[in-house]
Amino acid sequence: MMLDTYQEKTSATLEHPPAVRREQLLIHGMRRPAQSGRYFETVDPATETVIARVAEGDAGDIDAAVESARDAFEGEWGHMKAAERGRILLRWADLIRDHQEALVELESLDSGKPVSAIRRQDLPAVLDTLTYYAGWADKINGQVIPARTDALTYTVREPIGVVGAIVPWNFPLMIGMWKIAPALACGCTVVLKPAELTSLTALKLGELALAAGIPPGVLNVVPGFGKTAGAALVEHPGVDKVTFTGSPAVGRQILSAASGNLKRVTLELGGKSANIIFPGADLDAAVKAAASGIFFNSGQVCSAGSRILVHESIHDEVVDRLVARAAGIRLGDPRDKATAMGPLVSAVQMHRVLEYIDIGRREGAELAAGGARVGATGFFVAPTVFANVGHSMRISQEEIFGPVASVIRFKDEEDALRIANGTKYSLAAGVWSEDIGRIHRFIKGLKAGTVWVNTYGPTDVRLPWGGSRDSGFGREHGDAAIENFTEPKAVWINTGR
After folding, report:
1. 268 a catalytic residue
2. Which of 60, 213, 214, 409 is deepest in the core (most CB within 10 A)?
């Protein structure tokens, strides 16, 4: 069946049963229905039951949110002392910490992510990101540059203005905070468009921000669809900056649409990351990390190690070990703390992954594990391992965004580097070896924004994150994010001497 025959959401203007929660937009500090009166359903991916009906924002709502954000930027937030902004962000972090269990449960219900993974990674990353940038708020400095003896010349960094932030469905809380925290720390205001599949925790974060003392209009949350709310946000002349995480196809559309008023854009897009295992590497550690690198979050990770490049002398052993790892993964109820892997986020995503598995079979890859839907209810797909994958096969070249590992043989360093760099993506890569000379040679040759050595997958807000080519451009995290949300201004004061 063609993918476009599946519908992610349905819109409705009907009255809603009282058993299903109804969520409104958050604009200028108030929860309000969409101007159209329309709602869309959000579904629990594990049970396929409707858990909420969310107000469907569109161009009119985006316009109201941008106006509110502009007023806040030019008003209270824009005139607030930087240190006070930082203190408010720290209070927000305290409130998130106080409500973390509710956020964990809501994120799991909305996205299908196991609660154990959210508690271990997502929530700690949210808090770390927010507290890190809260500390930046009063430390965004310029420079004195002695250009001339008859002038005082210096620079300052000023907030860029109203930010349109568009967040994907795979890490709603974490990636949402990656964008919100540095923008607010810099003094910007934000209109957040969460993915329609996973809008609930974004709205909860917005409520907690208001409770922490963030003024109305500083953070607006407008759920809706990409073709309406997302497009209106990107095209809006009142938006000064767009930051987007998602697919390369949508990223290209955003880049084109943002050109209307030449707004600045940061794009963090797809990946087809290579995880390269050389002879002599610690295979226990390498295979454990390789399995985690592709099966974590059901493979719905932009930096997933979906291509596992293995030297021909150890290919079969690595495949056997991966198959054993896949068989040991507990797949099931995301709210069970013992569950290691939950469902895919939607029916559309499940059928996309299953179609790619069929493509792998047809192209001649060897299906060593998994390869099928699990159960009749919920969007579960078994952890899947393909062996003897050809570099030119579609499952090696195209982003699947599911729990599908492609194991590819290589002969030597040159062959491994050719294969590793041989896709249109360049987000991340991993290298496993005990040979320090080989490691340095390989790192130098890899086209990747992040390279992990003898590990796979950790990130930290203090380090830059991003890629190039179809993985996007610009960097998030660290001081790079401060540059994303500020503009430098040069000042020249004539001293007359």
Report:
1. yes
2. 214
